[in-house]
């Protein structure tokens, strides 16, 4: 079995690629210095915007990955979408925000970014939101790049294996932020990530990394014992010095006012785990399966909430282990988390 890039680091810890500015170049560098495996977050970026982030990563380490969103189109129920718009408009107006009621679709510049990564190869590319086509896997393999697929079910794991990927990232339902599921319309049942890892390994013979609900070294140990060769952490790094997390988000992660998380489509039209706030309580009951249309619809509202330091209108992505997030350098956090499991 081929050794995967994330299996060669000193510590079996992977810094999650948190798109939208949360995973900064400073954060990826800190993860690398600690001996973990860093990911450049390619979501929401053009190929031209992604390129300098990759080059900055090369200045720190030669062993890293780039994460891409794979398009997973879902037909929009225009009636349900319009009803969501009608509910959002008065709330947005109260906050001085104008929203565009027409649904906006895009493919997150996926083809252009794949082309760039073929022209300027990196050690590893991971894919989320859908399983990459075999043709894309082959193109990346042709330039020496390892390909990893994020999976959330055993069926997705089998599909990914059939398409020739080198490894899997098993994402449990307790992970913060967007679910990587290839079917964003499905109901996602709660379960321990370690159980999902065991189920996947019973179906496919590929190296596995795993994440979701990680709140401590004990949680890391549980996933490694289940068969994962590395553990993905994202929420635990949200309060670190190097993360691009907003001040409102940082404060909410430790506030007694926010004491639960929920998978919701309210912010983007795709299931994502967040701290429950007023926006979730109001809009989750009428949320629609319409990513990225809902993402674009609510983007200006969320940007204003960030500007106003208003946690009640912000997408407070967080996994169930959010109380484990702490301040300090991500380098220290990763070292302390992974030290008991150091390789070699």
In short:
It catalyses: 3 propionate 3-nitronate + 3 O2 + H2O = 3 3-oxopropanoate + 2 nitrate + nitrite + H2O2 + 3 H(+). By secondary structure, the chain is an alpha/beta fold. Helix content is 37%, strand content 13%.
How would you describe this protein?
The chain is of the alpha/beta class and 344 residues long. It has 2 domains: 214 residues, Alpha-Beta Barrel (TIM Barrel), CATH 3.20.20; 90 residues, no CATH class. The protein contains 12 helices and 11 strands. The chain has an 8-stranded parallel sheet with strand order 1-9-8-6-5-4-3-2. It has a 3-stranded antiparallel sheet with strand order 7-11-10, with no helix packed on it. α8 links the parallel β8 and β9. α2 packs parallel to α4 and α7 runs parallel beside α8. It is globular, with a radius of gyration of 19 Å. The two termini are 19 Å apart.
Side-by-side strand order of the widest sheet: 1-9-8-6-5-4-3-2
Termini gap: 19 Å
**CATH topology assignment of the largest domain:** TIM Barrel
The percentage helix is: 25-40%
* CATH homologous group name of the largest domain: Aldolase class I
Largest sheet: 8 strands, parallel
Number of strands: 11
Rg computed from alpha carbons, rounded to a whole number of angstroms: 19 Å
Mind telling me which CATH architecture of the largest domain this is?
Alpha-Beta Barrel
Q: What's the structural domain tally?
A: 2
Spans of 5+ residues with little confidence (pLDDT < 50)? Answer: none
Number of helical regions = 12
SS-based class:
alpha/beta
Keywords: Detoxification, Flavoprotein, FMN, Monooxygenase, Oxidoreductase
InterPro entries: Aldolase_TIM, NMO
GO molecular function: nitronate monooxygenase activity
Cofactor: FMN
């Amino acid at each position: 079995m081929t050794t995967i890039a994330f299996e060669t680091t000193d510590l079996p810890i992977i810094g999650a690629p948190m798109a939208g500015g949360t995973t900064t170049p400073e954060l990826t560098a800190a993860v690398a210095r600690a001996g973990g495996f860093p990911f450049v977050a390619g979501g929401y970026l053009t190929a031209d915007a992604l390129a300098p982030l990759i080059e900055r990563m090369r200045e720190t380490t030669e062993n890293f990955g780039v994460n891409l969103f794979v398009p997973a189109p879902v037909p929009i129920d225009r009636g349900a979408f319009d009803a969501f718009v009608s509910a959002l408009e008065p709330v947005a107006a109260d906050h001085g925000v104008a929203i565009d009621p027409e649904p906006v679709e895009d493919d997150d510049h996926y083809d252009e970014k794949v082309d760039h990564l073929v022209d300027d190869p990196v050690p590893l590319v991971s894919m989320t939101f859908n399983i990459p086509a075999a043709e894309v896997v082959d193109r990346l393999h042709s330039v020496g790049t390892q390909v990893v697929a994020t999976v959330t079910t055993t069926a997705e794991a089998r599909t990914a294996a059939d398409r020739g990927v080198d490894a899997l990232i098993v994402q449990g339902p307790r992970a913060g932020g967007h679910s990587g599921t290839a079917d964003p319309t499905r109901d996602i049942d709660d379960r321990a990530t370690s159980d999902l890892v065991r189920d996947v390994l019973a179906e496919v013979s590929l190296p596995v990394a795993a994440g979701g609900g990680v709140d401590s070294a004990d949680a890391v140990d549980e996933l490694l014992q289940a068969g994962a060769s590395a553990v993905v952490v994202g929420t635990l790094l949200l309060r670190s010095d190097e993360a691009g997390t907003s001040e409102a988000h940082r404060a909410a992660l430790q506030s007694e006012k926010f004491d639960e998380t929920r998978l919701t489509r309210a912010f983007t039209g795709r299931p994502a785990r967040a701290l429950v706030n007023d926006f979730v309580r109001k809009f989750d009951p009428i949320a629609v399966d319409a990513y990225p249309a809902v993402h674009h619809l609510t983007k200006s509202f969320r940007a204003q909430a960030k500007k106003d330091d208003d946690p009640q209108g912000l997408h407070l992505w967080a996994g169930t282990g959010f109380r484990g997030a702490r301040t300090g350098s991500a380098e220290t956090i990763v070292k302390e988390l992974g030290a008991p499991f150091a390789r070699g």
